[in-house]
Amino acid sequence: MVVVANDLSSKTLPRVLVVSRRTLRKNKYVDFVGEYHLDLIVSHGAVPVIVPRVSGIHSMLRSFEPIHGVLLCEGEDVDPSLYADKELPGLSQEDMDEIRSLHASDTTIDREKDSIELSLAKLCLERNIPFLGICRGSQILNVAAGGTLYQDIDKEVGTTTKHIDYDNYDEHRHEASLLEETPLRKWFDEMDQIMVNSYHHQGVKRLAERFAPMAYAPDGLIEGFYDPDRYDPEEGQFLMGLQFHPERMRSSDDEFDYEGCVSVYKEFVKAVTAFHKKQLDAAEIVMEVKKKKITLVKSFSGAEVLESNTVLSKQQENRLKQMGATVRNSCVYMKRMKRKEEQERAMDKLSAERLSDLLSFHRMMARLCSDAIKSKLLEPADSDY
């Protein structure tokens, strides 16, 4: 059941970018995104912003700022030139022809979509923006972080596990073992095995170093991974890839196979929301800093030492005049203020996340100091003997 938070229209909601997939309809291309993804994002209080798969859009991604989260899902095979293992020979032309005949809908490379999604994935890795990759999206995340893929699981792994069934698309399931002490294991009620769907003939070959596996198929193929150093939804940290489709693991009456399927999106949106809040907090800090900036004007007459966009008290103003405001004194004062301005400019260069972390640290220190002061005041005074 989808429940949308009350009065969402009156709030500034976090934004999740989702890249569309292109298909041919009536001799024209149409872009689309699966409705289940969008429903689950909206139901937990975020706004999906669709990035159309349009030529040149990869160079305009900054126009979609602010970005609070990215969800990448289905699509064609990732261009093998983006992750090719130079030490190992690729598949033969005969193998490739056979793969194309079996998986005709997936093997058409879409380099524009690759470019858009890799740019977004790298942006998330660099700025720690919450990221959820489903199926192809998980493969994009791994490639963006330096990992590689199997071009075809059957040819390269020789698997007996069926990862795609064109005749039984949504109902097909296979086992997946969940690793202990991972988010996936927690979401699925500490079950060591679940039955998952899958629609893919490619998969993670070499997992990028920063990631840790969360689930395996019976043939050893990775079904889920995450960055353990960047997982804390409460703090806006979430970098994860799932090879299966939790959004489509439903029965005929639209009930999910497991509550964990919903938890995937719930925890992702929780991280997106926390990241959004951090950005808002950081923006407030920047505004406060800008309000307090002082512009100095050197005065040789001694009548005025400075002009300020922050109002000085009458006492401060009189004190400055009493100092004589000589050229020498004003220069010393200006140097001090220049150092202060340099420090403030350094603050401006910090990322929103760093500023937010800095704010959290100082608030924590303020609380600790306050508690220490209270404790000191409550201590009995030392008696003289």
TrEMBL record:
A Pfam family reported for this protein in Swiss-Prot or TrEMBL: Peptidase_C26
PROSITE patterns named in the record: GATASE_TYPE_1
UniProt xrefs under InterPro entries: Class_I_gatase-like, Peptidase_C26, PuuD-like
Protein name in the entry: Glutamine amidotransferase domain-containing protein
Source organism of the structure: Brassica cretica
